[in-house]
UniProtKB/TrEMBL annotation:
Lineage: Bacteria, Bacillati, Bacillota, Clostridia, Lachnospirales
Nuclease keyword on record: no
Signal peptide region: 1-20
Biased composition (Low complexity): 24-37
Protein name per the record: Putative secreted protein
Keyword DNA-binding carried by entry: no
InterPro entries for this protein: DUF3502
Top-rank taxon: Bacteria
Keywords: Signal
Compositional bias ranges of the Polar residues kind: 39-57
Domain DUF3502 positions: 457-523
Region (Disordered): 24-57
Length: 528
């Protein structure tokens, strides 16, 4: 069970470094939503229903509910909240109420908390693994932030501007209005491939010569030939491949994409593209060689979990940096791996908005909510507290000043807080580093944000309202055909034709045309 949970937390911390999709469950702390309030204020001299006491004080402070994903038991939440509130009372004139949601219920619970506006509604949330910023705006679930950023959140805006990251901040803009703020993290991703060291050495893999998807395919075949009893493509209903060298314009069904996003803004049918044809040709080779693990349609485990469980001895994936990701995966999971990136790091709107903070439309004191965000984005002590917890409780420091597990703890599952500088917190770049990270990991992130390839559509957000019916119909078609094709569980050539025809019938051409029109209008507005 711990290994299963470990696979999930790595998704959060490393931007799905080796796997995409998850559904792990762990203990939550939903009882923390019962904090006693009067309007949007609380008497800090009174304990709440859970016995919390944030300390005696003569003042009253607005209490801002901030949700987070529970991936491990959060037994130290109260202690962390109390330490945070010492800072927030002084610097934000507000208090925070951390509200845990079990990660397996993340989407369902967030939807409930963002729909009713009652006592269970929330103030601050990250839309990671929930929905896009454009959908949040369409659903009326988020508040416009422009005036709040200019006033209570001016330090946040200055943070992006001074670091030359304003184009990423603009990814939270919909129809000219700011609705979200990206977490400070790496805003690019690259496709990667890792294999167990023993297998790679046996196959004499020279990773310096592996630079493309075609090279990756050759490696998979060589690994299989040298290790005939092992598999190197994890067969699962969770996708083993997310194409990170294209810009799929925020749509994980790939219903209209830019296949050459640094050179062209032509929206194409992904399923009729040269990229997809080439990838399916590799699938045919992997299937014939027996490199794909058996029974893919009956396995629902994420990619990394398949590697940890020994289902496969190698896997594709993606990360903001292949070397840093591999170092962390090795240290956190106790396995020997080798590998490399097989595409160059690319930044798209999807990457920049993976971890984005919002103020709920139900928030009664948005000024206080923005003041809290302002502190969490700019104050190192507060940023590290919320991401990693308390020194001596959830981590210790080694001789290099890097975080290590406390005595008696062998991993994050043994802690009382999901201490991993989790990317969805506002600014992990202010945090201490973990022992398995380079000391200059945040400098590397910042540099990569500036030097990575950037999609010509970086900052563009598609509004699917006009083609909602076609989007739904095409999504159903993708659900029927895509996964069997990606594992060669059907005859690829004939099934691909059926798939393409079904998409045409469902209205994919309408979607592509609408995306192109909106993208062209957005590009034209940028050039004015």
């Amino acid at each position: 069970m711990k290994k299963r949970i470990f696979a999930i937390i790595l998704t959060i911390t490393m931007i799905a470094a080796l796997f995409a999709g998850c559904g792990s469950k762990s203990k939550n702390s939903d009882s923390n939503t019962n904090k006693t309030e009067t309007g949007n204020k609380t008497d800090t001299a009174n304990q709440d229903n859970n016995g919390k006491n944030n300390g005696q004080t003569d003042a009253e402070y607005p209490v801002i509910k901030m949700v987070y994903a529970v991936v491990f038991p959060s037994t130290d939440e109260q202690a962390i909240e109390e330490e945070l509130n010492k800072i927030l009372r002084e610097k934000a004139q507000a208090e925070i109420d951390l509200v845990g949601i079990e990660f397996g219920n993340w989407q369902t619970q967030l939807n409930l908390m963002l729909s009713g506006g009652g006592s269970d509604s929330i103030d601050l949330f990250n839309s990671f693994w929930y929905t896009s910023v454009s959908n949040l705006v369409t659903n009326g679930q988020v508040m416009a932030l422009d005036d709040l950023l200019a006033n209570e959140g001016s330090d946040i805006k200055n943070l992006f501007v001074s670091n030359e990251l304003e184009e990423y901040l603009n990814c939270g803009v919909v129809n000219g209005v700011q609705y979200g703020i990206p977490s400070m993290y790496a805003y690019c991703t690259e496709n990667i491939f890792y294999a167990r060291t023993e297998d790679a050495r046996k196959a004499n893999i020279d990773w310096s010569q592996v630079k493309t998807i075609d090279d990756m395919s050759d490696v998979i075949l060589k690994l299989k030939e040298a290790n005939p009893d092992s598999y190197y493509v994890p067969g699962s209903t969770e996708p083993y491949w997310i194409p990170k060298s294209i810009d799929y314009l925020g749509d994980t069904n790939y219903l209209g994409v830019l296949t050459n996003p640094t050179e062209s803004t032509k929206v194409e049918n992904y399923y009729e593209s040269e990229y997809f044809y080439n990838f399916l040709n590799h699938v045919k080779e992997w299937k014939k060689a027996g490199a794909i693990s058996p029974d893919p349609l009956s396995n629902s485990n994420p990619t990394l979990m398949n590697l940890l469980m020994g289902v496969v001895n190698g896997t594709p994936g993606y990360a903001w940096d292949s070397a840093v990701s591999m170092m962390a995966t090795i240290a956190q999971n106790g396995i020997d791996l080798e590998g490399t990136n097989v595409t160059e790091a690319l930044s798209t709107t999807s990457d920049a908005t993976t971890y984005m903070w919002h103020i709920s439309s139900f928030c009664k004191n948005p000024e206080a909510a923005m003041r809290i965000l302002n502190v969490l984005y700019t104050d190192p002590e507060a940023a590290n507290l919320i991401a990693n917890g308390i020194e001596g409780l959830t981590y210790e420091l080694d001789e290099n000043g890097q975080m290590v597990y406390p005595e008696g703890a062998n991993g994050m599952a043994d802690l009382g807080w999901a201490a991993a500088s989790m990317a969805y917190w506002p600014n992990v770049m202010l945090c201490k580093t973990w022992y398995y990270e380079p000391l200059d990991v945040y400098e590397k992130m910042m540099e990569k944000n500036k030097t990575c390839d950037k999609s010509l559509a970086l900052g563009f957000t598609f509004d699917s309202t006009k083609v909602a019916n076609q989007m739904a119909a095409c999504a159903n078609v993708v659900a029927q055909y895509y996964t069997p094709l990606m594992y060669g569980e059907v005859d690829i050539d004939s099934t691909l034709v059926e798939f393409q025809q079904a998409l045409k019938k469902a209205g994919i051409d309408d979607i592509i045309a609408e995306k192109q029109a909106q993208l062209d209008a957005w590009l034209q507005s940028k050039n004015k």
